[in-house]
Rhodanese domain-containing protein
Amino acid sequence: MRGSSAACCAAPISVSTAKIACRNESPLFQFKILCPFASLTTTSIFTTARPFLSLSRSQPDKARQKQKLWEFNCATIPSSSTVANPSNDFIVVNFYRFVFINDPHEEVAKHLSFLKGLDIHGRIYVNEQGINAQYSGPSKDALAYVEWLREDFRFSDILVQISPALNGHAFPKLKLRYKPSLVQLEGGISHLPLLDPTMRATPLAPSEWRKRLKEVHDSNCVVLDVRNGYEWDIGHFHGAQRPDVDCFRSTSFGESDSEEAIASDPLANVDKEKTNILMYCTGGIRCDVYSTILRQRGFQNLYTLKGGVSHYLQNEGPVEWVGNLFVFDDRLSLPPSAYNPEDTTVPSSNPQGCKNILFANCYICGSQVSELRHRNCANIDCNLLFLCCMECVKDLKGCCCPQCTTAPRLRPVLPGNQRYKKWYMYRELEVQNELAV
């Protein structure tokens, strides 16, 4: 997701959503404002250089000025566009690309050089098969990195997913380095034909995915959730079976050889040549990786959700989706509205939105939970990620079981949506307390 003759146009608008389109009418940039400006003036200048978008505000509503929220959708911004962004709000950016990189260590050095001085935290991994990135930062810095990356023809059309980070950085620090596997899978992925598009599943646009889901019950089709069980626990597509997996590394769909494994494998005993398999994950990379494995195992009709669930929620809203979306950063989960705040559509089976979801149960007592957000066990040496009702949080002091409540290294019970800091922070606090005593 990275004109010869000059043309200039300016027009005042008073809307809460706007799109700037190029000559072929594909969207260049979309912005949404939850507290709309009284008036906006857009100036789009097409020259031999890049199109330029400037925003000016008139008659500001000072009472709401501090409440404004900018949400950027760069998923379809061509490489020829530059955006002047007046906001310093924090965002989280996700993208990946499978492409041959001759010297990944040199590539890492180039990226480190560009990011020097920018306020970027996250995980950016590079190897011979491409790049995989999830990072946070002020939108100005975060989008500058995307623009720089798209200047490279290998990444000029890369699909970028963006979501808000309302509490600042969603990652503790920047990790930009060479990594043998862009995603962790048993046995690694360097031997997989990831650079051959024909070996990966066919990507479906969100609108096509939505159409296919409505036809699932009338066709020979399997909706395959290529995530972990705890991700399914707080949100999933209708018709998707809960994955019996706690880590993607151990995913084994389609290779069941025991009765117990077959019972939990959605692909067990299906016709590999006739069954349509609709695969989805958060951002798309796990599906791309695992689809090559399924292709090698003889599965013919493989389809993935392009851009993953985050891209779908941004374009289609929560239709056919129920619950929240688990994310691998400090936010832990996001409601569908985080990706498309103006979409008021809710799943027909859940008219009250994301509250009181019937499938979400407390890990400890099994009761229904209304807060679709995981927490870590207060026992540092356990650190289990689990869903829990507030009664059990109080009864077990933030732990996942009675045994953990007597563990020697317990962290304090966290209220609300907070998340524990790194374990060594509490070890240092414990040492300080012992010295004080």
Q: What stands out?
A: The longest strand covers residues 90-98. Confidence is low (pLDDT under 50) at residues 1-87, 347-356. The two ends are 57 Å apart (CA to CA).
